[in-house]
Amino acid sequence: MTERTKPRKFTILLVDDRIENLLSLEEMLDADHRVFMKATSGNDALKQVLKNDDIGLIMLDVQMPEMDGFEVARLLKANPKTRDIAIIFVTAINKDEQHVLKGFEEGAVDYLPKPLDLLVTRAKVNVFEKLYFYERDLKMALKEKELVNNQLERFMYVVAHDLQSPLSGSMGLMMLMQEDPRIKEHEDLLEYTNMAVKASYSLSEMITAIFEFSRKNELQQTIEDVDVTELVNEIVTMLFPPSHIKIHIEDTLPVLSTVRSKLHQVFQNLIGNAIKYNDKPQGEIFVGVKETDAFYEFYVKDNGPGIEEKNNERIFKLFEVVDKENAESTGIGLNILKYLVESQGGKVWVESFPGEGSCFWFQWRK
């Protein structure tokens, strides 16, 4: 049973030195999914909190012998393990502003005066219950995202490792071809061979960068000045676009300080897809940028087949293949792209019209 499929229960610790008050409060707040724990002193309350990790709310009486509610709250907030538990003070004494402020200073998040109003008490507890489940669900979502990101990094490492050997062999053969007299006799063949060798070197550098990305965290990766115009031109050269596809690159692309391998991978994925999936006799691809306060918003626009609106989010999910007839697609590239963009605070999205083309946007922090 996963965390998401576990029964949703909300545990409330009731703290009061009078048993009748505890029973009355439990009856007032009783619900099928709620679990109640009771403590009749400050020391007892502290012991129960330390032994139970799933307490979502503490209803804490202020006026108790030996250790009052203020001291209990102070100790709970001083402990990293318990400081985030919501506390509602319940009291019949001193309702003036100064007394209430003291409660908030000690760590209370709300205050209920005695005698308790049934509707107000239920309403406040319901609010904290909803906040508890929202926070729990958010933590689980972040944990799941971190797991997926780790899986992607391992996947990238394996792919890069498996590509090294065949690429080294291909590079060796092409370098031999460069020296072959029969190749040198034909300028066109020699030019194509030189381009293939150059592209292989670029691919080798990219594989090395993938190794770096998969093994190092954000702070360890090299930050350098990247001329985006130069970067995009290198990618276009390496992708060998067919003659019927024209690629237009804005001359306003910036120079920015970033991890070159990440930006390279994002642009290569988008431009490569725009070339691969273009279905027009005369293909057009445009690469440009808009500037905001915190980000550069780059775009890669094409006149290809386009994407149905219902699939605009699906295409960025891991292993999600919208076109089932496309055997070449793994459903991985755009998910890695999304992760790379989001890892430095940006977002990625697509604007598309079926039959007319698509425009992929992504933000890159300045």
UniProtKB/TrEMBL annotation:
Gene Ontology molecular-function annotations: ATP binding
Stretches assigned to the Histidine kinase domain: 158-366
Modified residues (4-aspartylphosphate): D61
Enzyme class of the recorded protein, top EC level: transferase
Matches recorded under SUPFAM superfamilies: ATPase domain of HSP90 chaperone/DNA topoisomerase II/histidine kinase, CheY-like, Homodimeric domain of signal transducing histidine kinase
CDD domains: HisKA (cd00082)
Keywords per UniProt: ATP-binding, Kinase, Nucleotide-binding, Phosphoprotein, Transferase
Residues in Response regulatory domain copies: 11-129
InterPro entries: CheY-like_superfamily (IPR011006), HATPase_C_sf (IPR036890), HATPase_dom (IPR003594), His_kinase_dom (IPR005467), HisK_dim/P_dom (IPR003661), HisK_dim/P_sf (IPR036097), Sig_transdc_His_kin-like_C (IPR004358), Sig_transdc_resp-reg_receiver (IPR001789)
Name this polypeptide is given: histidine kinase
Organism of this sequence: Chitinophaga horti
